[in-house]
């Protein structure tokens, strides 16, 4: 087993028994190969960026106008890239589907509708497996966008819009393994997806709808998504006897109660700690206004849930809960630290 050795290090990888996998000279040669490959692909990306022109806008127009989905297809390495492009489109607000070209002629052509647009990937433009989809798109007048390096290829000749890949050399020393070509295909797909995203005004809230799981989904959660609202919010008036306020705290079981004035504005809060600090024989007969502390920490419903957690823990005095208020400081909800933990925000 290898101990962690960074890619940028020039020493040999060290095994747990103290031996090395390569002498320093061999590692230097490996690093040179790795850097050569990366630089070759960077060169391809720079050529791609310089070569973008009006056909990119035309492709966007077709995708944006489609009432159905963007059908992405390709074979081999281009097929793997096509799957990723379809996934990126779908997650950024453009309905998309990958259709395997070899399966298309065995019934999967039925997945493609007349309101769709087809995005076909082939570096050479001569992949025979694409013939069924190309023919189907022409027969039913379904818009066809080609991503290819073959300017005079069969695919380019059939397409409505051709996004030409730059004539960049593959990073493979034999010039055979798809490397630079698949990198620029991937980048072009990302460019299409994100340009469509910006055209549509796709917001973080929209993005969260498609990414509810994992770290990203938790990062995009808003306070409104996890807060308690309505009758669950513990509230009393400043003139309420402490005996009643304690009953409200017990019933709502959040360990605190908010204090609102006649206009419904939050003017204070009483916590379990406040009860302990004011504990004496006359506590139950006192009014809420005598015990509460003013200017409680609050947050707006549209703020990130992570910000709520930071407010609870990041500034003195720490607290375990926040009232959620509107622009007029009227309580609309309540969020507890436990709500953040259950949602995976912590």
State the gist of this model.
This protein has 346 residues and is an alpha/beta fold. It is 43% helix and 14% strand.
Describe this structure in words.
The N terminus is likely disordered. This protein has two domains: 151 residues, Glucose-6-phosphate isomerase like protein, domain 1 (Rossmann fold, 3-Layer(aba) Sandwich); 120 residues, CBS-domain (Roll). It contains 15 helices and twelve strands. Helix 3 runs parallel beside helix 7. 30% of the residues are buried. It is elongated. With 346 residues, it is an alpha/beta fold. It has a five-stranded parallel β-sheet with strand order 2-1-3-4-5, sandwiched between helices. Strands 6-7-8-9 form a four-stranded mixed β-sheet.
- Uncertain segments are 1-11
Order of helices and strands: HHEHEHEHEHEHHHHEHEEHHEEHEEH
Termini separation comes to 33 Å
**Mean of all residue-level pLDDT scores:** 87
CATH topology of the largest domain: Rossmann fold
**CATH superfamily grouping of the largest domain:** Glucose-6-phosphate isomerase like protein, domain 1
- Shape verdict: elongated
Number of strands: 12
**What spatial order of strands do you see in the largest sheet?**
2-1-3-4-5
**Tally of domains:** 2
Please give the radius of gyration in angstroms: 30 Å
Helix content: 40-55%
* Percent in strands: 5-15%
CATH class descriptor name of the largest domain: Alpha Beta
Distinct helical segment count: 15
Biggest sheet character: 5 strands, parallel
């Amino acid at each position: 087993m290898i101990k962690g050795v960074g890619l940028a290090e020039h020493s040999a990888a060290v095994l747990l028994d103290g031996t090395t996998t390569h002498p320093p000279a061999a590692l230097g040669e490996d690093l040179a190969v790795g850097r050569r490959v990366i630089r070759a692909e960077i060169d391809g990306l720079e050529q791609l960026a310089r070569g973008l022109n009006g056909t990119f806008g035309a492709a966007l127009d077709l995708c944006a106008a489609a009432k159905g989905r963007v059908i992405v297809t390709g074979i081999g390495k281009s097929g793997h890239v096509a799957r990723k492009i379809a996934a990126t489109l779908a997650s950024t607000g453009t309905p998309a589907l990958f259709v395997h070209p070899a399966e298309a002629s065995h019934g999967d052509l039925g997945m493609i509708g007349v309101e769709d647009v087809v995005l076909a990937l082939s570096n050479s433009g001569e992949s025979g497996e694409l013939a069924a989809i190309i023919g189907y798109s022409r027969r039913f007048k379904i818009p066809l966008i080609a991503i290819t390096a073959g300017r005079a290829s069969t695919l380019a000749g059939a397409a409505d819009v051709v996004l030409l890949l730059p004539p960049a050399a593959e990073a493979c020393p034999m010039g055979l393994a798809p490397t630079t070509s698949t990198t620029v295909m991937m980048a072009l797909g990302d460019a299409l997806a994100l340009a469509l995203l910006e055209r549509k005004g796709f917001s973080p809230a929209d993005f969260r709808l498609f990414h509810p799981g994992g770290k990203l989904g938790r990062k995009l959660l808003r306070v409104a998504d996890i807060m308690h609202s309505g009758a669950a919010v513990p509230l009393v008036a400043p003139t309420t006897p402490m005996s009643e306020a304690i009953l409200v705290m017990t019933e709502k079981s959040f360990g605190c109660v908010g204090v609102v004035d006649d206009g419904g504005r939050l003017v204070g809060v009483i916590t379990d700690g406040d009860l302990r600090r004011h504990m004496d024989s006359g506590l139950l007969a006192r009014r809420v206004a005598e015990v509460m502390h003013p200017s409680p920490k609050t947050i707006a419903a549209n703020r990130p849930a992570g910000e709520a957690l930071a407010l609870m823990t990041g500034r003195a005095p720490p607290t375990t809960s926040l009232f959620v208020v509107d622009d007029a400081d009227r309580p609309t909800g309540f969020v507890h630290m436990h709500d953040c933990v259950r949602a995976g925000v912590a």
